[in-house]
Amino acid sequence: MNNNKHAVIFFYTAVALLLYACRTNGSRGLFEPEPDRDHRTVLFLQDVGPQVISPNLHQFNHKLTLLATSIENTIQLMQDSNEAIDFGDAQENWKTTMLHWQRLELMQIGPLGSYYDVIGGEDRRYDIYSWPISNRCRVDMVTINRDYQMDDFFDSTLPNVTGLDALEYLLFGDINSSCPEQVNINDDWEELSELTIQQYRLEYAQRLVENIQDQTLALIDIWSIDGGNYGLKLLDGSIYRSRDAALNDIFNSLFYLERFTLMYKLSEPLGLGCCSYDYEDCMLSAEHIPSGLSLKAIEHNLLGFETLFKNGNGYGLDDFLIDMGHGDLQQDMLSRIDKAKQSLEGHEQSLPQLYQENPDEAVRIHNEISSIVDFLSSDVRTVLNFDELYIDCNGGGD
C-alpha cells in the first residue's frame, strides 16, 4: 500500500475509529516455568497458519470465485434482456462471501493487520474490507465517472471504494444516488436510466471482485508453506522479537470482538457506547445497512473468535489453559461463547429490525458478547499475564 493510503488510514483510525494501545509489543512470562511456557507457545504458534489462517483464506477465495461467476452471469443476463434485472444470485453469493470474511476479521495477524498496531502489519485488511470508513457517495462518484475503468484505479484511489463494503452497496444499494444535494453528480445521475446504472455498477463490481481475489491470493501465498511461510515467521524471530511476542500479538487480535464487534457493531447502534444521539441516528452507524446482514456478521465474528481461540483443530488457547491447570477458565470461556452463539443463531433480520421488534433481545446479545470480552480481558489475560488494552471513545490510547 502506498504512503497516501497509510496516511488516510491513520487519519481515519485516529479520528473515527476506536483505537487501542498495546503497552508492549510482547508479553511477560506466564505464571509457570519458562520451558513449559515456551513449549506450549510453540505448539500454539505452529498450528496458527495451517489450522486457522490458510484454510480460511482458501475457503474465502473459493466463495469469491463463485461470486465472480454470479456477477458475470448477471451481466450476461442483463445484456441478453437489455433491461434492468434482479441481482438476487449475485447478492446471495456476496452474503456467503462476506460472512466468511467476517470470520477472518478476527485473524488480523501479520500483513493483514494494522500497519500502526500489529507487528508486521501492512493494512491488507483495508484492501478487502474498509468498514467502518465506507463511503457510499464516493462509490456513486466512481460509478458515474466510471473511474473503475482506469488502469491505475486501485493504486490511485482510497480503500473505502474498493472492498467488500463498496461491493455491498453496488449490489444492494438503492437506484438513487447516496450523495447529498450539494455534491455535483446528482443531476447527471438522474439523467441515467436504471439499466445504465445497473450496467455501470456491475462493471464496477466485476473489477472489485477481481482485485479482492488478487489480494486474497497474495495473502494465501504469504501464509503458504511453499510461499512466504508466514507461520514460520511466528517462530523463527525474523519479525517478532520472541515467540512470546508473536503469541501476544495473536492474543490481541481476539480483541477485534471488543474494538469492532462490541463497540462499533453493537454498542454504537444501540446507543450504549459513545453515540449521544437518538435511536434513529445511532442506528445509522450499524454495519451492513444495504444488505441487512448486521446480526449475521456479528455471529460470524463470534465464530471467527472461537476458531482462533481454539486454534482450529490444533493446540489452542483452550488447551493452553487446561495445561496450565485452569480448565475451569477454559470451560467458562467456551460456555460464554456457546451461550452467545445460541442467542445469535436463527436471526435473519438486521440489528435495527431486531431492536424494533425486541429491544431486550438486542441488548441481551450485546451483554453476552460483552461477557466474553470481559472474561478475556480479565481472568484469561491475568492467567496469561498479558498487558491490558486501552480503549477510549475519542479514539486515543495512552
Task: List its salient traits.
398 residues, mainly alpha, two-stranded antiparallel sheet, globular, disordered C terminus
Describe it for me?
- With 398 residues, the protein is an all-alpha fold.
- The chain has 2 domains: 54-239, no CATH class; 240-386.
- The chain has helices spanning 3-15, 34-81, 88-104, 136-145, 153-156, 164-172, 186-191, 194-223, 230-236, 243-253, 256-267, 279-283, 294-310, 317-323, 327-344, 351-357, 359-384, and strands at 20-21, 390-391.
- It has a two-stranded antiparallel sheet with strand order 1-2.
- The protein is globular and about 70 Å long.
- Residues 14-33 and 390-398 have low confidence and may be disordered.
What's the helix and strand layout?
Blueprint (H helix, E strand, L loop, with lengths): L2 H13 L4 E2 L12 H48 L6 H17 L31 H10 L7 H4 L7 H9 L13 H6 L2 H30 L6 H7 L6 H11 L2 H12 L11 H5 L10 H17 L6 H7 L3 H18 L6 H7 L1 H26 L5 E2 L7
Antiparallel strand pairs: 1-2
Helix pairs in contact: 2-3, 2-8, 2-9, 2-10, 3-6, 3-13, 6-8, 11-17, 13-15, 14-15, 15-17, 16-17
Mean pLDDT: 90
* Contiguous helical run count: 17
Strand content range: under 5%
In terms of quaternary structure, the protein is single chain
Counting helices, strands and paired strands, the structural category is mainly alpha
Percent in helix: 55-70%
Radius of gyration: 22 Å
Q: H/E element string?
A: HEHHHHHHHHHHHHHHHHE
First-last Cα distance: 27 Å
Apparent shape? globular
Strand count, sense and barrel status of the largest sheet are: 2 strands, antiparallel
Poorly predicted runs are: 14-33, 390-398
The neighbouring-strand order within the major sheet is 1-2
Total strand count, please? 2
Give the count of structural domains: 2
